[in-house]
Each structure stands twice: as C-alpha cells, then as structure tokens.
Amino acid sequence: MAVQRRGNVKSADTSTIEKKIKRGMAQRQASPYRGYSALLLALLCTCALLTWLWSVWTNDIMDTMVSRGEVLTQPRVFMVQCSEDYQKYKHFPGCTPTKCGRAVSDSVATTDEAQILKRIAERGLALGGSDGGASILDLHSGALSMGKKFVNIYSYFSDQIRDIFTEEDFELYRVMRGRIQKVIAETFGLDSSKLFLTKPTFFSRINSTSAKTTHDEYWHPHTDKVTYGSFDYTSLLYLTDYGVDFGGGRFIFMDPNSNRTVEPRAGRVSFFSSGSENLHRVEKVAWGMRYAITVSFTCDPDYAIADPSLP
Known about the structure:
Blueprint: H1 2-57, E1 62-66, E2 76-80, E3 100-105, H2 111-125, E4 129-130, E5 134-137, E6 143-147, E7 149-152, H3 153-156, H4 161-164, H5 167-188, E8 196-206, H6 224-227, E9 233-238, E10 246-248, E11 251-254, E12 259-262, E13 269-273, E14 280-282, E15 285-288, E16 290-298
Parallel strand pairs: 1-12, 4-6
Antiparallel strand pairs: 2-3, 3-13, 5-8, 6-7, 8-16, 9-13, 9-16, 10-15, 11-12, 11-14
Keywords: Dioxygenase, Iron, Membrane, Metal-binding, Oxidoreductase, Transmembrane, Transmembrane helix
GO molecular function: dioxygenase activity; iron ion binding; L-ascorbic acid binding; oxidoreductase activity, acting on paired donors, with incorporation or reduction of molecular oxygen
Protein name: Fe2OG dioxygenase domain-containing protein
C-alpha cells in the first residue's frame, strides 16, 4: 500500500511539472506578441502626443472668420487688445490705434472692379514675374519682380508704359484707395484726413512655384508694424476667389489659442491694425493664381506717399 501511495505521488508530481513546463512554453511563445502590442501602443500614444504638441506649437486650430461663400452686407469686425508696439512711435491723436482689431468687408469693391484691377496686375506682371512663387507690382515706386530681382517698370519699359496702363486704370486704383481708407476710418473711429497712404503698397500674384529667393517666402508669420515701422493699418483687396481660382492662400490671423482665417473672395477687403495683436501669415498656395493688392496706411505724415500717376 505504501509503495502504491508513493507511486501516485510521483505521478501527480510529474503531471504538475509537465503543466508548468507547458505553461512556461506558452508564456514564452506569447511574450513576443505582448511585447509587440506594448510597443505598438506606446508608439500610438507617442504619435498622439506629438500631434497634439504640433497643433499647439503651430497654432493649427482653425476658425474661419469669413468664408468665401459668404457675402457680407456689413463689415465683420473682431476687436482685440492693442499691443505695445505703438508706444515705441510718435502718437498721433485721432489716428494712432487705441482700438485694435481686424475686419472684413464685401462692400468696398464690386466683382467687376476687382476683375479690372486683376487685369491691370496681369498686364504689368506679364512683363516680368518672379522665378519663385511670389511676384509684385508697385505702381507707386514702379517696382516689378523680374526673375530673382526687381526692376523699375517705368524706366525699364518706358516706351511701352502707356500701351500697358491707361489713365482709367490709375483712376480706379485711386478710387479703391479712397474707399478702403474710408472704411478703415469708420470701423476704427478715426479722422480719415489724418490717415495717409504709405509704402509698400502693391499688387501681388502668388502661385505654387517653389521659392527661389527670400522674397518668394511669403508664408512666414510676421507683424507689419515690426516689419515696417510706418504701418498703422494694413488692408488687402482680393482679386480672385479661394477654392475657385486657387487653393491654399488663406489669410491667417495667429491668435494665442487658435487661428482665424479669411478666405479670399474677389472684391473682398480685409483690414486690421498693424501691431503684434494681429500677427499673421498667408497659407502656401497649392494651385492656381492668387491676386491681391496690399494697401497700407500710416498716421505719420512724414511717411506718406502720393497716389500713383501714369508717367
């Protein structure tokens, strides 16, 4: 009987050992898969974290201030606190920004007027154009992008200039400047007579061609008052439609917690106080041609420029 009991114990011990061996083998076989799963989970978590951090760092949360499909019957105004930039310059009562913000109006220019202005830009830029994606035409100074440099369109093409532009072209340009000046003064409560056109004021054409010089790198965030000390108010008159004539190219105000975008529409005017409260950039153009006019204003008469005239 004792021998039989010892035999049973041995059999039970053997069975237990075999089970442990099988369990160990199963665990060893499963452990690589558990390791891969853990690694995959860690990678997914890391990617999610990096995506969130990137959205924070690049301020990639987009709010559309005005879409292309909207037609505004009244200016859409978004007020912000003024930066300290203006304190570094001479103060001009009735003009220097004390109420700051950005606004969009669809009532300054008609679609037909925008088309005429676009044709003015096309005729001028057809004589030159940047090798990169951004070209400018400045009717005030005569600056015209050509290859990797600029030329003076009035001297470089002096014998052709009256075949390219007409007095009516320049008159429409002056009328648009006056209307933009008026809506800026009304929106920000300014004395319009104390607001002066300043430089640079120019036509721009942007396409998807890669940059060849720093002048083509239009997409960097910047503040106009910092870049051009004379600027107090900046405006853009769009001559083409986002999503129809070009892709990308939205105007982006970069606020602390989100970005606010303006989708260009032919005849639409976007305008804003020029300080750091309106840090902004232009989205890279993905396809097509984006045409606009940048019209800049100062409160300092020492930096005023006259309306352009046909030589």
